[in-house]
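for the writeup, i need someone to sanity check this before i put it in the appendix. the sequnce is what the collaborator sent (i think, or maybe the updated version? ugh). structure was predicted straight from it, no edits. if anything looks off just tell me and ill rerun, i have time this weekend
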Amino acid sequence: MSDLPNCPTCGSEYTYDDGIQLVCPECGHEWARDAAPEPVEDELVALDANGNRLADGDSVTVIKDLKVKGSSSVIKVGTKVKSVRLIEGDSEGGHNLDCKVEGIGPLKLTSKFVKKA
């Protein structure tokens, strides 16, 4: 069992000592060994299909044909969506990205159907 503290950002127990500082392999957070613990914020986290962390303003590419609910439109594979915004996932479909798709309009997407561009 390690005597190293958990990551102050994500709470991971897999931290390791890099000689100068402590590092979390899960979220990439680095901090000084003798630093006071930082408060963990309730920030929105969205991961794409490849496990990359998405942030507000990122561009993403759709990896699967997606039917638009209430319409006969389809968002085709490879469609690039610019400037996504993270939102709290809804309980119905887990849509956690708010965006505007060219030719379709504003809608919500689920991050598991996109990859970071």
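Residues 46-116 form a domain with the SH3 type barrels. fold (CATH 2.30.30.40). The chain has a mean pLDDT of 87.
thx in advance!!
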